[in-house]
Known about the structure:
Elements: H1 2-8, H2 12-43, H3 49-97, H4 101-107, H5 109-151, H6 153-200, H7 202-207, H8 211-237, H9 239-263, H10 269-310, E1 333-340, E2 365-372, E3 377-382, H11 388-395, E4 403-408, E5 411-412, H12 418-422, E6 425-428, H13 439-444, H14 451-460, H15 464-468, H16 487-500, E7 505-509, H17 517-530, E8 535-539, E9 551-556, E10 559-564, H18 566-572, H19 574-584
Parallel strand pairs: 3-8, 3-9, 6-7, 7-8
Antiparallel strand pairs: 1-2, 1-4, 4-5, 9-10
Amino acid sequence: xxxxxxxxxxxxxxxLGVMLIKLAGTALELLIPYVxxxxxxxxxxxxxxxxxxxxxxxxxxLAFLVRLLNVNANRLSVRTAKRxxxxxxxxxxxTALNLTGKQMDRITLPSLISRMTSDTYNVQxxxxxxxxxxxxxxxxxxxxxxxxxxMDRGLALILCIMAPVMxxxxxxxxxxxxxxxxxxxxxxxxxxxxxxxxxTGIRVVKALSKEAYETRxxxxxxxxxxxxxxxxxxxxxxxxxIVTLFLNIGLTLVVLLGAHRVNAGVTKPGVILAFLTYFNMxxxxxxxxxxxFMMLSKANTSALRIGEVLExxxxxxxxxxxxxxxxxxxxxxxxxxxxxxxDQDNSGHSGDNTRFAGEQRQNCLENIDFTIRKGxxxxxxxxxxxxxxxxxxLLMRFYDPTEGHVxxxxxxxxxxxxxxxxxxxxxxxxxxxxxxxxxxxxIVFGREVEEEQLYQALRDAMAHDFVTAYEDGVDHLSAxxxxxxxxxxxxxxxxxxxxxARPDIxxxxxxxxxxxxxxxxxxxQAIREHHGESTLIxxxxxxxxxMNMDEILVLDEGRVIGRGTHAQLLETCPQYxxxxxxxxxxVD
Length: 588
């Protein structure tokens, strides 16, 4: 809740104002039954219609003021809650975009989505309710008891005995419900994960006719989450009927004892009517407290989950320039004996990937050592899972090496500002996505790209012809993930995005897998002719995509098993020669 307080204190004057308005409205509401008792017991016996109308009008004025104050307090509380949650979602989104690779692996994307949606909604509901019900309920409870004590202490003792028991029951049950709602939110993470997997892979599901299987898989997780939610809801709802039973017993006792006291002349009839009204108010107060504690249980769990993300320390800080290692050799890009393993120790975390807890770390890259000159090119080839993409992840500092160092233009990447570092790159990853925007916005992507650069990038990426064939050209809208384009069209648009800003370092990670050989060849030729100043790294499965690179690395299980030009590798690396023979035919 510490993170939540940071956002609440900004609006503290408004929140206090809302609470004061609600306090005034509740105090006036408590006054109405007291006025009614005075009207019945003191005014009516005088048999003066004008006085009855006067006091009746006073009650109407009180009712109007109560409504006016409560409505305004509710409106302000809703506005304040929305402003707080807007700031929380904004910061949560910003933090999510800046999470390191290790932090993202630990929290997981489904859990981030759940925290951004259901968790923030729980917090918003609590912020709104604590300003209204959080004031009204205790004032109704305490104020009702105080007023009834001033009216008839004998009857009020019934409330004084029952109220502490009911309050203690609500508090004990609420404390038990907090950990239950934590499990509910973890279940929501699982639901989001399965839904996201199925929405993303809907074509695979349909192609393999696995709709029934996926429905059963979702139903199991949904059923378990529903079971947790029912248990938590049942636990938190327990005080409701018990409190109602206690208060109804109290009402019965008030009527019985009150009738006896009226008959004995100790109590007036108006007091009994006022007591019945105050009993209902006190019941509303206790039920309001129960509702507040229920929302507090949810909000506490959700606030902790949100705070867990917002308060994450930067586990990859930018080091001062003097602390960075110095490359021992020349080269624009230098990997100096780099070893790397993904951190899989996620024990005790609330994310949905705790199944990795305790697994032994295994290096996915071992002793990677190479240099690339400015404007040079490097091809990387190897089997799936050999660590090709991990090299790019380290170069862009999504992760830090376990051992060794990475340098760009003589500077250790750990000493470079992350935004400055990333602006050097134009990248096409394996599973990059197009956004539901125009082609222009997808390529420009908020950067300073002139119109001529945009069209040149489309021509270089072999995308100009099909884009200009649309009536609206570059203003043609892309569907989510570019689903209204073919696989080859999507890849060409992604390549155009990477080329548009004329980056210092161009990385194509399996970026031409959906292109035919002819288009791939034209693409490579356009990059050589128009982007020769960019340092090029190509990760590919095709030998034809990398055979003209200055140097080629052949990876196998994270190790370099071959290094050299295409001709050198054909002679010295059996694995590379086998790939070439399979794809291109026998070597002469």
